[in-house]
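Q: Hi! First time doing this. I have a protein sequence and I read that you can turn it into a structure. Is that right? Here it is:
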Amino acid sequence: MSLKELTVKNAPYPITEECAEKLGIIGKRLQEENKKYNLTALTSDEDIAVLHFADCLQLVKAVDFSGKKTVDIGCGGGFPSLVIAAAEPSASVCALDSTAKKLTFVAETAAAAGMDNIQIMTGRAEELVKEVRESFDIAVSRGVSRLNILAELCLPYVKVGGLFAAMKGGGGREEAKEAEKGIIRLGGKLKEIIPSPVKGGEDHCVIIIEKLRQTPAEYPRQYNKIKKQPL
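A: Yes, that's right. Below is the predicted 3D structure, encoded as structure tokens:
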């Protein structure tokens, strides 16, 4: 079974032929470019279809990205940003990361898949926010750090009325409880935790945080302070 067929088979909802084609191109480029530099430990067709594509499509199923301006904080090799852009052509997606070579892969892969709804920003999240503070409808992040650290990096990007969606593994509910006071201080409120199952029974989830008020100007702090003293 081809990568495209595996992607369609394992998708958590019916995806369009156009989306499947784009994801097939993304997956093949991921396999090719990973030989040059490390983008992912998951390189087989099935792993890419299930643990990258199906996992990220669970996020698209949980959150309405239609027509929304979205930023992917710490996008790495482009997950979930490339998948969001492929699945929802009306979304405007910004892939943000501090590693230029990964963003080069994202930009070149988006072009190869014929996607013009994704752009890149290179640098540290706590520094780049000065340019685009509270200008996004949605911020997303996948497996970057614990939620009590991640919330301070992501919520300042989100406009009031928007959402921050964090993709988490088995410890997601514990992280949400740990981060709740800090989320409130940053102007957010925990809305819901949506189960996000993937093949094999891993206990993944999407944590949805609403942005109710502007984030105080002193946040985000420098990363070493965030890490040393999470809110």
